[in-house]
Specification:
Length: 168
């Protein structure tokens, strides 16, 4: 009788193998993973849009205009009679400002500069060393100033662009 009992125990243990999973477990785990990934993606997008709304319009415009000024412009050797894009540097990824481009910038009408730098609903004041373009923000409701270190005539100075809105 001992032999029959040991055979019976062996038959029962062969049918129950440990370490296997039921296919429904894999389906449920996959669905939970996809659900969690979707929730994380939705949260990330809402967080990004909240941060982008906090950077108001004036700040965004001031940064974009400052970035445009730190390019050589188009054509690269533009002057006050031939320009499509206004930029003050000698080449891309450079902080060397050309004096001839500053002189040409002073000859362009204020409203045209606003249009080319896409500052249109606001006013601006640009200061490069001792040179200034635009109107100082005396009665500004909101203003944003972007300062950048530049080289002008082999001297380190600041390019300061203030974008502002006044009482209108």
């Amino acid at each position: 009788m001992m032999i029959n009992l040991s055979i019976l125990i062996r038959k029962q243990s062969v049918g129950c193998r440990k370490g296997q999973f039921f296919s429904y477990d894999a389906i449920v785990a996959g669905l939970m993973f996809i659900l969690l990934l979707t929730l994380l993606y939705t949260y990330w997008n809402s967080l990004r849009s909240t941060i982008s709304v906090r950077i108001d319009d004036v700040t965004r415009i001031a940064m974009d205009a400052s970035n445009l000024l730190m390019t050589p412009g188009f054509p690269i050797n533009w002057d006050s009679s031939n320009y499509n894009q206004i930029g003050l540097t000698s080449s891309y990824n450079s902080i060397c400002i050309e004096q001839t481009k500053i002189n040409s910038l002073n000859e362009i009408p204020y409203e045209t500069i606003k249009q080319k730098l896409a500052i249109a609903p606001y006013d601006f004041y640009l200061q490069i060393g001792d040179e200034t373009v635009g109107f100082p923000p005396d009665n500004a409701l909101s203003k944003v100033t972007i300062n950048r270190p530049i080289l002008l005539n082999d001297k380190l100075v600041n390019l300061s662009l203030t974008v502002w809105s006044g009482l209108s």
